[in-house]
Amino acid sequence: MKYSFEPAEKSTVKITIDFDAAEWTDAQNQAYMKNRSKYVVNGFRKGKVPKHVLEMYYGKGIFFEDALEVLYGAHYGEILQAEAGSFTAVGDPSLSVDKIDEEGVTLIAVVPVKPDVKIGSYKGMKIRKYEYTVTDADIAVELTRLQERNARKVEITDRPCADGDTVTIDFSGSVDGEKFEGGTAEKYELELGSGSFIPGFEEQVVGMQIGEDKDITVKFPEDYQAENLKGKEAVFAIHLHAIKAKELPEVTDEFVKDAAGAETVEEYKNKTRERLTKQAEKRSEDETESSIINAIAETAEVEMPDAMIEKQIDMLVQNAEYRLMYQGIKLDDYLKYMGRTLEDFRGDFKEQAKKNALDQLIVEKIIKEEGIVATQEEVDAQIAKQAESVEKSVEEYRKGMDPRQFEYISSDIMVTKLFKFLKENNELYTEEA
Question: Where are the beta strands (DSSP E) in 161-211?
Answer without folding.
Answer: 166-175, 178-191
